[in-house]
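for the writeup, i need someone to sanity check this before i put it in the appendix. the sequnce is what the collaborator sent (i think, or maybe the updated version? ugh). structure was predicted straight from it, no edits. if anything looks off just tell me and ill rerun, i have time this weekend
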Amino acid sequence: MAGTAPELPLCLRVHRRFLRLRATRRDKHGREWPLSAIAEDFQAPGASLGPLNAGTGLPRLGHAAGVQRFFGVYAGFLLADSQSAVEHALAATGAGAPADLGHLSYLTGMEPCDIRLTLDGAPPRLPLKEQVRRRFEHLRRTRLRADGQVHSLAAIARSFCASGQSLTRLSHGEGLPNLAAAAGIQRFYGVDGGFLLADDTEALTTALAGIEQELETAGPRTENPMLAVLRAHDVRSIVTRAGRLSPAGWKSLAGHLDDLLAREGQLTREGTGRVAVPDDRKAAEGGAP
């Protein structure tokens, strides 16, 4: 999916999406949820969301996860860039598609055993700090450099203008990264904006939706090229009056279809095979059977 819309700075993007959540997901009286009620849901003071609401700062990672959980949106809602947000919305309209556990593990950062538990309706519940640490280590282990080595913490942090030391505590499981660092990590590895934060059920759903979309888009590429061209031109049916079609007519039809395919770029004119005249048609026209 390509577009030309400029990407907003992370702080402004997160601020706008938070305001959008408050404006569109109101309480039972039709009023915006107060900051204190939102923050109380994840045991934090309402004042901790003041900078986010005013657009003057980013929330802590745990607070961002709590906000998204409170409003019932997917884990990448606040962080996702515009393209990821649109792709997630499109993918969310379809159901999951089956895939092997290893591939799902790669996509989600979950252990295969945890995927099986999630598919069985009993997803494990890890503390957020441990979940983020595991998924960060999974990214480093499965998305290697061209020489097969892991990306250094310094190289990862450098991509979002930070020091490698800023990721040391995350790597050791001693704390959570700030929101900007989390967004930078996900951008560095090219994963969904909610990769680090999504709970297991949501991570698996996102991965399956992506696989389904790949399968749907891969289908037309393996389609018979002639059928694809006819469908592109909205041809619903073809009727040939075989009793009146001479061998020369068959050759003319084959040549016309070959030219059509060549113009559509489905095959080269030189390498085109001709449509054979059926034996029974040759006999009917007086030709040798």
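The radius of gyration is 28 Å. Confidence is low (pLDDT under 50) at residues 93-98, 268-278, 280-289.
thx in advance!!
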